[in-house]
Amino acid sequence: MSQTLPVLRHxxxxxxxxxxxxxxxxxxxxxxNRAWLQPWEATHPVMSLAAFDQRQSIRSLLQxxxxxxxxxxxxxxxxxxxxxxxxxxxxxxxxxxxxxxYWIIQxxxxxxxxxxxxxLVTDYLFFEKALHRxxxxxxxxxxxxxxxxxxxxxxxxGYRRRYIHIDGGWRDHLCYAxxxxxxxxxxxxRYENGQVPSGVSEIxxxxxxxxxxxxxxxxx
Length: 220
What we know:
The protein is of the alpha+beta class. The protein has a single domain (8-212), classed as Aminopeptidase (3-Layer(aba) Sandwich). The chain has helices spanning 23-32, 34-37, 54-67, 113-127, 143-152, 187-192, 205-212, and strands at 8-9, 14-17, 71-77, 80-91, 97-104, 133-138, 155-166, 169-179. It has an 8-stranded mixed beta sheet, with helices on both faces. Strand 1 and strand 2 (14-17) form a beta hairpin. The longest helix is centred in the middle third of the chain and has 15 residues, at 113-127. It is globular. The model has no long low-confidence stretch (mean pLDDT 94).
C-alpha cells in the first residue's frame, strides 16, 4: 500500500513530505546543530559519517514511502524547516504498526512543536491509514525526547539493550507505544485538552536497575 505524503497543519507547525531539493537546507541545519543532534543521530555500523549523502538518503526515504513502508516528513514553523519526522517500518494487515523518529533544531526545542508534530502524524496514521500501533524508541540519555512521549502519554513498554546504532555505537533504548484504542478521540485532542493519564510513561524501578547495570559481553 503506497503512501501519499500528506500535509498536516496546526497553528504551531506544518508537516509536509520531504523533497530531494530539501537536501541542501537539511545539511545546513544538521551541520549548524551538530553538537545538539549528533548524540542522537542514527549511524551505520560499517559506513562512516563522511560517506553519508543527504540527497541519496532522501531518495531512499521516498522510495520506502512509495512502497508504503515509510512516511518521511519535514517539520516547518512559519514556512521554515526546523526539523524532520520520519515514520518507518510501516506494516499493515495483522500487525498494522509503525515506528517513529524525529529531530528538531536547538533554537526551536522546548516550544511545544515536536509533541504536536508527533501527535499530528500519529493521528493521521491511526485515523486516515488505519494503523493500530505506533512505537517510539529513545536513548535513555535523550531526556528531551523522553519528555515528549511523557507529555503525549505514550506507554512505557520495555528496555532494549544495544538496540540501534547511534552516534557510532550500539545503544540501549527505551521503548514507548500507543494503540488507537487508547486515544479514541486522537492523541492531539487528548494532549491539548489535558486528558493525558498520569504515570503511563513511568519507567519501573526494575528497569532502572537494568539501566544502571552494565551489559557483560564476552571478551573478544
